[in-house]
Amino acid sequence: MRKFFAILIGKLIITITRITRRGGGSALPGLVALKIDPKLVSKITERLSNGPVIITGTNGKTTTAKYLSEILKASGLKVIANGSGSNMLRGIASTLIERSSLFGRPKGDIGLFEIDEATMPEATANINPKYILVTNLFRDQLDRYGELDKTATIIASSLKGLKGINVILNADDPLVASLSNQVDRASKVTYFGLDENRYLTSSKASFDSKDCILCGRELNFSKRYYAHLGEYSCSNCDFKRPYPDYIASGISLNGIKEARVNFSNQKNVISATLKLSGLYNIYNALGAYSLSETIGIADALTQGVLENVSAAFGRMEKIEFKGKEIYLLLIKNPIGFTQVIETLSTDGNAKNFLICLNDNFADGTDVSWIWDADLETLNNDFNSIICSGTRSHDMTLRLKYADLDTSKIETIEDSVTALSKALDKLGAKETLYILPTYTAMLEIRKYLTKEGAVAGFWEEQK
Amino acid sequence: MKIKIYHLYPDAMNLYGDWGNILAIQKRCEWRQIQTEIIEVKVGENYNFDDADIFFLGGGQDRGQILISKDLGLKGKQIKEAIEKDTVALTICGGYQLFGKHFKTANGTEIPGISVFDAWTEASTERMIGNVLVDCRATTSNWENMHRFGLVEKMHATLVGFENHSGKTHLGNNAKPLGHIIRGYGNDGTGNFEGCQYRNAFGTYLHGSLLPKNPWFTDHIILLALRHRYGSDSELPQLDDAIEIAAHNEAKERVYTAKTVHI
């Protein structure tokens, strides 16, 4: 009875918020329903025939989930997924309420949930996961979660005692790979990683985790792809990068437009040309490939989908607006910011940027992370930059100290005003690259939606 | 002209953009044709700190802090001697705590500091997170530099930054704070004092990064370093700080307008 009322009330709230157009109604229905029946999520997810998949980690959750979701759909499975950043338990409850009958029977075969690192203990206790994938652990919104080591500890505690599940870890991230120690013997651990010599870095930016999490001594890196992702071994104990079961190799990046890559499971190889470029997106596609292999989906099908998927909500999204071309590239932490800039620079064209730095709760209220991003690589290789957002001046200041030419940089606090100005200034055949933090992206998208450029984001989730 | 900066344990102690502080010193020197040499101090290696003009120690995770505390203890005597001879030091958050007398962890263990500051820190279960605004008028009234640049009028001698700590730092009877809290938790969570100063050594909880947004404080540090090396008649030419001041004022405004959420 509790479950019934919880779902009923939840569904009512969803309808009301949709009618009154008060946003996508992401969190509220779940929040209220969980007050009525705290076990609601578990009661619905246990009835999913192929079980839920959880994707967690700092970067790449949304894109990895999008890749996998498309693969699952193409294989004929009905997918219930959360999205658009509502990755706390109440967001998941909202999704489940919408996608189940009044009696809690899910209208789908498999669940696909992006989970915030800090929500993991609550999530694994409620969602009955069958597959868990951890993408990476970088510094992100530290003001919310404390410190990076603590984040690793939180995820570790969420894995303890889970039996009979598949845990898929990024071998190249020492913090993530070390999580295998927490996995119960009755569960299976596999790894994914790159095998690459062309795109290596020696940049110290965001090189966050240089010490062995087991013994505290220094890790030796024989290769680094970016930040602390690479091939490593401990200088003291036997901790080293595990050999990956799923490998991406033969990578070739062409600016923001496309990337070529081979995926292998040590038996078969598939070659794909991805629409999403950048090493970080290769990791996302590789994660989705690893999951689809684990779930047992045919290679040919996976290959076709990997090639067709375009960007997830606000992540390297291409938008046509008033005859002009815009790319939306979400930034939320130093390594993501650095990777976006690095990927953009691989095509060698000077660009126009709009950077929107907000410091609201969902962005992370501490903006000091911009000082850890390697923005020196912009190197005056740009036509113009407009900085906007609640911390627009802080952003401009960061660029000044990156030794960029401040005469080509403008500060306009309001994001929408800044956007119009940036578009006005744009020459024929030029592209505007918008780099917003999360709430700034919502503002910009809301404006573009109003002007008819993009569909409302809750419509996209279906 | 050249100043030499010893960056203490950059590998283990580099949280929340603290590297931006080194960058600010470096750039503001470079823009005035002053050279900077930065030496990264590592655990287990020996250094001669006689030629140090500035020490910098950032914040770290607990793991990093424990890792370096022993090594810092071995170098402590040398660092203190240099500070007695007017070498400048800037220490942030975890670094500030280690420049105090000791840090008492949640289970009661005392991690010794190097006692530059007459202050000590104890762990708490409260996480003190948020934007901070500090009034430094009273605590910096003897800094000549302030009047030289007319900064008291221009910037009202405020520091802006972001704190994120659970340690509570208590000042001893001989300690002088860096400033009075206008908004924020400050040293011990009571919202009274922020940071500590002893001779030319400064400790604070402020990230942000601190120095880029507080150029008057950066210039004070650079001027002290120049005077340490070249004598008391050293001067600093004025820079165009319009962007710095705009960022300072924006941060000041966010202290009042940003919503803080506690979890």
UniProtKB/TrEMBL annotation, chain A:
Keywords in alphabetical order, please: ATP-binding, Cell shape, Cell wall biogenesis/degradation, Ligase, Metal-binding, Nucleotide-binding, Peptidoglycan synthesis, Zinc
- Enumerate the InterPro entries for this protein: Lipid_II_synth_MurT, Mur-like_cat_sf, Mur_ligase_cen, MurT_C
Which EC class, in a word?
Answer: ligase
Look up keyword Zinc and say if it applies.
yes
Catalytically driven reaction(s): beta-D-GlcNAc-(1->4)-Mur2Ac(oyl-L-Ala-gamma-D-Glu-L-Lys-D-Ala-D-Ala)-di-trans,octa-cis-undecaprenyl diphosphate + ATP = beta-D-GlcNAc-(1->4)-Mur2Ac(oyl-L-Ala-gamma-D-O-P-Glu-L-Lys-D-Ala-D-Ala)-di-trans,octa-cis-undecaprenyl diphosphate + ADP; beta-D-GlcNAc-(1->4)-Mur2Ac(oyl-L-Ala-gamma-D-Glu-L-Lys-D-Ala-D-Ala)-di-trans,octa-cis-undecaprenyl diphosphate + L-glutamine + ATP + H2O = beta-D-GlcNAc-(1->4)-Mur2Ac(oyl-L-Ala-D-isoglutaminyl-L-Lys-D-Ala-D-Ala)-di-trans,octa-cis-undecaprenyl diphosphate + L-glutamate + ADP + phosphate + H(+); beta-D-GlcNAc-(1->4)-Mur2Ac(oyl-L-Ala-gamma-D-O-P-Glu-L-Lys-D-Ala-D-Ala)-di-trans,octa-cis-undecaprenyl diphosphate + NH4(+) = beta-D-GlcNAc-(1->4)-Mur2Ac(oyl-L-Ala-D-isoglutaminyl-L-Lys-D-Ala-D-Ala)-di-trans,octa-cis-undecaprenyl diphosphate + phosphate + H(+)
Taking every annotated instance into account, which residue ranges of this chain make up the domain Mur ligase central? 55-288
Q: Which GO terms describe its biological process?
A: cell wall organization; peptidoglycan biosynthetic process; regulation of cell shape
Gene3D superfamilies noted in UniProt = Mur-like, catalytic domain (3.40.1190.10)
Signal sequence, renumbered to the chain = none
Annotated ranges, domain Lipid II isoglutaminyl synthase (glutamine-hydrolyzing) subunit MurT C-terminal: 330-441
- List the active-site residues: 366
Q: What is its EC number?
A: 6.3.5.13
Binding site residues for Zn(2+): 212, 215, 234, 237
Query: What are this entry's molecular-function GO terms?
Result: acid-amino acid ligase activity; ATP binding; carbon-nitrogen ligase activity on lipid II; zinc ion binding
Q: Quick one: which pathway? A: Cell wall biogenesis; peptidoglycan biosynthesis
Which family does the record claim for this protein? Belongs to the MurCDEF family. MurT subfamily.
Protein name, please?
Lipid II isoglutaminyl synthase (glutamine-hydrolyzing) subunit MurT
> In which organism is this protein found?
candidate division CPR2 bacterium GW2011_GWC1_41_48
Its taxonomic placement starts with: Bacteria, Bacteria division CPR2
Gene name of the encoded protein: murT
From TrEMBL, chain B:
Which residues are in the CobB/CobQ-like glutamine amidotransferase domain?
A: 4-214
The organism that produces this protein has a lineage beginning with: Bacteria, Bacteria division CPR2
* Keyword check for S-adenosyl-L-methionine: no
Q: Where do the catalytic residues lie?
A: 93 (nucleophile), 207
Q: Which residues bind substrate?
A: 127
Entries under Pfam families matching the protein: GATase_3
Sorted alphabetically, the keyword list is: Cell shape, Cell wall biogenesis/degradation, Glutamine amidotransferase, Hydrolase, Ligase, Peptidoglycan synthesis, Transferase
Task: Give the organism the record lists.
Answer: candidate division CPR2 bacterium GW2011_GWC1_41_48
What are the EC numbers?
A: 6.3.5.13, 3.5.1.2
Q: What is this protein called?
A: Lipid II isoglutaminyl synthase (glutamine-hydrolyzing) subunit GatD
Q: Name one GO molecular function term.
A: carbon-nitrogen ligase activity on lipid II
Gene3D superfamilies, per database record: 3.40.50.880
Family classification: Belongs to the CobB/CobQ family. GatD subfamily.
